[in-house]
Specification:
CATH topology of the largest domain: Rossmann fold
CATH class of the largest domain: Alpha Beta
Number of strands: 7
Protein backbone atom coordinates (compact mmCIF):
# COMPACT_ATOMS: atom_id res chain seq x y z
CA UNK A 1 0.00 0.00 0.00
CA UNK A 2 2.87 2.36 0.76
CA UNK A 3 4.16 2.01 -2.82
CA UNK A 4 0.76 2.88 -4.31
CA UNK A 5 0.08 5.76 -1.90
CA UNK A 6 3.48 7.40 -2.09
CA UNK A 7 3.74 7.18 -5.87
CA UNK A 8 0.26 8.73 -6.19
CA UNK A 9 1.45 11.60 -4.01
CA UNK A 10 4.33 12.22 -6.42
CA UNK A 11 7.22 10.54 -4.63
CA UNK A 12 9.81 8.44 -6.43
CA UNK A 13 9.41 5.02 -4.82
CA UNK A 14 12.01 2.27 -4.63
CA UNK A 15 10.51 -1.05 -3.54
CA UNK A 16 12.57 -3.86 -2.01
CA UNK A 17 11.56 -7.48 -2.52
CA UNK A 18 12.99 -10.96 -2.25
CA UNK A 19 10.86 -12.11 -5.15
CA UNK A 20 12.30 -11.04 -8.50
CA UNK A 21 9.07 -12.26 -10.12
CA UNK A 22 7.16 -9.43 -8.37
CA UNK A 23 9.00 -6.59 -10.13
CA UNK A 24 6.28 -5.88 -12.71
CA UNK A 25 3.58 -6.05 -10.00
CA UNK A 26 5.47 -3.53 -7.83
CA UNK A 27 6.00 -1.24 -10.82
CA UNK A 28 2.25 -1.42 -11.59
CA UNK A 29 1.63 -0.26 -8.03
CA UNK A 30 3.92 2.72 -8.65
CA UNK A 31 7.50 1.73 -7.88
CA UNK A 32 9.95 3.44 -10.20
CA UNK A 33 12.66 0.94 -9.27
CA UNK A 34 12.76 -2.45 -7.56
CA UNK A 35 15.75 -3.65 -5.56
CA UNK A 36 16.70 -6.98 -4.03
CA UNK A 37 15.88 -6.96 -0.34
CA UNK A 38 19.18 -8.76 0.31
CA UNK A 39 20.85 -5.34 -0.06
CA UNK A 40 19.17 -4.34 3.20
CA UNK A 41 18.59 -7.52 5.19
CA UNK A 42 22.11 -8.44 6.33
CA UNK A 43 23.99 -6.84 9.20
CA UNK A 44 25.41 -3.51 8.06
CA UNK A 45 27.56 -0.67 9.30
CA UNK A 46 26.08 1.76 11.84
CA UNK A 47 26.29 4.68 9.40
CA UNK A 48 26.14 4.10 5.63
CA UNK A 49 25.94 6.10 2.42
CA UNK A 50 22.85 8.33 2.44
CA UNK A 51 20.29 6.85 0.02
CA UNK A 52 16.80 7.65 1.26
CA UNK A 53 14.86 10.78 2.15
CA UNK A 54 12.25 8.62 3.83
CA UNK A 55 11.58 4.91 4.36
CA UNK A 56 8.52 2.82 5.14
CA UNK A 57 9.79 -0.39 6.73
CA UNK A 58 7.52 -3.41 7.16
CA UNK A 59 10.39 -5.77 7.99
CA UNK A 60 12.24 -4.71 11.15
CA UNK A 61 15.52 -6.20 12.42
CA UNK A 62 18.62 -5.66 10.22
CA UNK A 63 16.52 -4.19 7.41
CA UNK A 64 15.22 -1.46 9.71
CA UNK A 65 18.71 -0.83 11.09
CA UNK A 66 20.13 -0.49 7.55
CA UNK A 67 17.25 1.76 6.50
CA UNK A 68 18.09 4.10 9.38
CA UNK A 69 21.81 3.93 8.60
CA UNK A 70 21.11 4.89 4.95
CA UNK A 71 18.58 7.67 5.56
CA UNK A 72 19.67 11.18 4.61
CA UNK A 73 20.10 14.05 7.02
CA UNK A 74 16.73 15.04 8.50
CA UNK A 75 14.93 12.03 6.98
CA UNK A 76 12.20 9.89 8.48
CA UNK A 77 11.84 6.12 8.79
CA UNK A 78 8.37 4.76 9.54
CA UNK A 79 8.42 1.31 11.12
CA UNK A 80 5.23 -0.65 10.55
CA UNK A 81 6.14 -4.32 10.67
CA UNK A 82 8.46 -7.01 11.89
CA UNK A 83 8.55 -9.69 9.20
CA UNK A 84 12.32 -10.15 9.68
CA UNK A 85 12.11 -9.79 13.46
CA UNK A 86 11.25 -7.45 16.34
CA UNK A 87 14.88 -6.70 17.20
CA UNK A 88 16.60 -3.44 16.27
CA UNK A 89 20.36 -4.10 15.94
CA UNK A 90 21.42 -0.50 15.42
CA UNK A 91 23.26 2.40 17.01
CA UNK A 92 22.18 5.95 17.75
CA UNK A 93 24.59 7.38 15.13
CA UNK A 94 21.97 8.09 12.41
CA UNK A 95 19.82 9.86 15.00
CA UNK A 96 22.61 11.98 16.47
CA UNK A 97 24.74 12.69 13.39
CA UNK A 98 21.99 12.95 10.76
CA UNK A 99 19.00 13.95 12.83
CA UNK A 100 16.78 11.23 11.41
CA UNK A 101 13.47 10.30 12.99
CA UNK A 102 12.24 6.77 13.59
CA UNK A 103 8.46 6.88 13.77
CA UNK A 104 6.39 3.90 14.82
CA UNK A 105 2.85 3.32 13.68
CA UNK A 106 0.03 2.46 16.03
CA UNK A 107 -2.75 0.24 14.80
CA UNK A 108 -3.85 -0.84 18.28
CA UNK A 109 -4.19 2.17 20.57
CA UNK A 110 -4.84 4.93 18.03
CA UNK A 111 -7.92 6.97 18.95
CA UNK A 112 -10.98 6.80 16.71
CA UNK A 113 -10.47 10.36 15.41
CA UNK A 114 -6.96 9.52 14.17
CA UNK A 115 -8.21 6.27 12.62
CA UNK A 116 -10.97 8.18 10.81
CA UNK A 117 -8.42 10.61 9.38
CA UNK A 118 -6.35 7.67 8.12
CA UNK A 119 -9.37 5.96 6.54
CA UNK A 120 -10.44 9.25 4.91
CA UNK A 121 -6.95 9.70 3.50
CA UNK A 122 -6.91 6.14 2.16
CA UNK A 123 -10.29 6.69 0.52
CA UNK A 124 -8.93 9.82 -1.16
CA UNK A 125 -5.42 8.71 -2.12
CA UNK A 126 -5.56 4.95 -2.73
CA UNK A 127 -6.56 3.96 -6.26
CA UNK A 128 -9.36 1.35 -5.91
CA UNK A 129 -8.01 -0.62 -8.88
CA UNK A 130 -4.60 -0.90 -7.22
CA UNK A 131 -6.24 -1.90 -3.95
CA UNK A 132 -8.16 -4.63 -5.73
CA UNK A 133 -4.91 -5.94 -7.23
CA UNK A 134 -3.46 -6.21 -3.71
CA UNK A 135 -6.30 -8.24 -2.19
CA UNK A 136 -7.34 -11.84 -2.64
CA UNK A 137 -10.62 -12.93 -1.07
CA UNK A 138 -10.96 -16.61 -0.14
CA UNK A 139 -13.61 -18.61 1.74
CA UNK A 140 -13.02 -19.71 5.34
CA UNK A 141 -12.49 -23.27 4.11
CA UNK A 142 -9.22 -22.14 2.45
CA UNK A 143 -7.86 -20.18 5.45
CA UNK A 144 -5.44 -22.91 6.57
CA UNK A 145 -4.13 -23.31 3.01
CA UNK A 146 -3.54 -19.57 2.72
CA UNK A 147 -1.87 -19.47 6.15
CA UNK A 148 0.59 -22.15 5.00
CA UNK A 149 1.30 -20.17 1.80
CA UNK A 150 1.86 -17.03 3.90
CA UNK A 151 4.37 -18.80 6.15
CA UNK A 152 6.16 -20.14 3.05
CA UNK A 153 6.49 -16.61 1.61
CA UNK A 154 4.16 -17.32 -1.32
CA UNK A 155 1.60 -14.58 -0.65
CA UNK A 156 1.69 -11.04 -1.95
CA UNK A 157 -0.58 -8.28 -0.81
CA UNK A 158 -3.44 -9.13 1.52
CA UNK A 159 -5.70 -12.15 1.93
CA UNK A 160 -9.22 -11.53 3.16
CA UNK A 161 -11.02 -14.54 4.61
CA UNK A 162 -14.71 -14.35 3.75
CA UNK A 163 -16.94 -15.81 6.43
CA UNK A 164 -20.35 -16.70 5.06
CA UNK A 165 -23.24 -17.10 7.45
Amino acid sequence: MAVALLSKLGYTVVAATGKVSEESYLKQLGASRVMDRAELSAQGKPLQKERWVAVVDAVGSHTLANACAQTRYGGVVAACGLAQGPDFPATVLPFILRGITLAGIDSVMAPLARRQLAWDRLAKDLDPAKLEAMVEEVPLARAAEKAAELMAGKIRGRVVIKISI
